[in-house]
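It would be a great kindness if you could assist me with a short task in structural biology. The matter concerns a single protein, recorded as an amino acid sequence and a row of backbone structure tokens. Kindly check, if you would, that the fold set down in the tokens agrees with what the sequence suggests. Thank you for your consideration; the sequence and its tokens are set out here:
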Amino acid sequence: MNFALPTLAVFALLLPGFIARSRIKRIERQSLDYSPFGQIVSEALLWALALHLLWCGLAVLLTTYQPRPEVLLRLLGSDNARQSQSVEAIAAMAGPITAYLGSLLLFAYLMPTALRHLISRWRLDSHRSRLSPWLRFSGAPWYYLLTGADFPRDHAPDLIAVSAIVNIAGEAFLYTGLLSDYFLDTEGKLDRLVLREVMRRPLAADKPERPGENGRPLLFTDRFYVVDGDYFVLRYSELITLNIEYIKLAEQPA
């Protein structure tokens, strides 16, 4: 019995499922997927089954070729003679089988990618959506926190403000600015924040209970000063606390 042929056949059948599973997920880590092995295989198997049923149905409707599952079953069996017959049958249909698998692999890559884009665009994964329990991307907590993706489209924040406390030479400083971008490391942990229009102050210079000198109101610039530069990078490993504020701009009435 040749074990290589059945193994290769099973791999070719399941590969579209693994591709579709990886493309539909929004995973923030770039390293290995540490999901339970049983969960990975079961999800890939369901995807592969659905894709093959769809593609076989389209093949029956649009072409003259008919699915021949008996050829695959003989190939997976232990009889060498039947395996040889299956190999000959597959070789005779090499062109259609290659077209079938090639188009299916391409569809398994493009369809989940487009579906993920539509889910994010229409905020179907928002915690306020009724479809959230089924469509929410469980492996992307920073995506929801730092993009405002949990808000409906018509109430999405225009700006995201970030405030963070950083320890510099034993003194705590408060930095505040508008979030421009963020980056993750290979493990999916937040690596750095890119801010603009940044200001800072010592944490000890908190807002006093009384107004400023000569009875004038205490201005924001009396405690904070602007950090020069277009962009300011904060490393998450150096932060003590992190505060996120979602800002929605309102139009002034005419």
Observations:
- The chain has a mean pLDDT of 86.
